[in-house]
Amino acid sequence: MRKLAVCVNFMSEPYRSRIEKAAAELGFTPAFYHDSSDGRLGEDIGGYEVIFGHPAPAVLKRAERLRWLCSDCAGIEAYLDSAVWPHPDCLLSNGSGAYGPTISEHILMVLLMLLRRMPEYQAAAAERQWPYLKPIRSIGGSRVVMLGTGDIGSHTARRLKALGARVTGVCRSGRSTEPAFDRVVPLGELDSLLPQADALVMALPATAETVGVLSRERIALLPPTAYVVNVGRGSAIDQEALVEALQARRLAGAALDVMVPEPLPVDHPLWTCPNTIITPHISGNMALGLTCDLSVDIFCRDLARYAAGELPEGLVDRNRGY
């Protein structure tokens, strides 16, 4: 009997029925857990060939029959250490493809807030003041550098392009099939783009290559009218240098959904930086129903591929980190 465990925190009866039907057709018997921290999962994990969810690495090590972990998360850095795996040939896939719509809408929201000076209006409202702030700026005609051209970057480019932005994608390969990008260049050309950027949007995974990619030197290349938006990982930014630039108003503002550390300490200077929007790592998650729908779609589709002896679409190269 081929067994699979489902341990995601957004399970509903329709999702459960769909997974049960797909599993039965493919010869799997599913078991459902409240989430990846469910204590019963740790007791049973040794019997599962497939897991849909994100169990703790310490628990994963005991999954002696595991052949494929389908993480419902996009970020999978917790699983990049070979020591957490029971076998070196276990497959790992992530939730890429589920988060593009919701995170791109978050990016659009915070970028519009910054361009239309909403942080300043919110601060004024807290003091019962009634200002008229000008000028404001538009996404239309803005030059946006999109650092990361995967699912999130592509969805974001489509939305920005629809509002008239000029979007340049930056990624490791310098290639993308997404037509919404005006052009796509390799990471080595980032420095030449920054001085003309109205906004730098970052949607990078956590890898050794992405740590500190927005360095102090690159922050200095941005014009004082530029905004920084980060929805990838906080480790991608020299946070101390960013704080200094925001405090000195050498940048127009920032919107950060990811930071180091998380949660951000109550006395951290980022909280009080001017024109800075802080959100507690919520641009993705499972708050939007569509994200849950897409996550289940991806799992069921990849389960069929796995059962047919094919690799999942969302396969992660654990050496590269994505």
Mean pLDDT: 96
Measured distance between first and last alpha carbons: 31 Å
Principal-axes shape call: elongated
Structural class: alpha/beta
Number of contiguous helices: 10
Total E-strand runs: 12
| Strand order within the widest beta sheet | 8-7-6-9-10-11-12
Helix proportion: 25-40%
Describe the overall structure.
- The protein has 322 residues and is α/β, with parallel strands linked by helices.
- 31% of the residues lie in helices and 16% in strands.
- The strands form two sheets. Strands 8-7-6-9-10-11-12 form a seven-stranded parallel β-sheet, with helices on one face. A five-stranded parallel β-sheet has the order 2-1-3-4-5, covered by helices on one side.
- Helix 9 links the parallel strand 10 and strand 11.
- The radius of gyration is 21 Å and the shape is elongated.
Strands, helices and their partners?
Elements: E1 2-7, H1 13-26, E2 28-32, H2 39-44, E3 50-53, H3 57-60, E4 68-70, E5 91-93, H4 100-115, H5 118-126, E6 143-147, H6 151-162, E7 166-171, E8 183-186, H7 190-193, E9 199-202, H8 216-221, E10 227-230, H9 239-247, E11 253-256, E12 276-278, H10 289-307
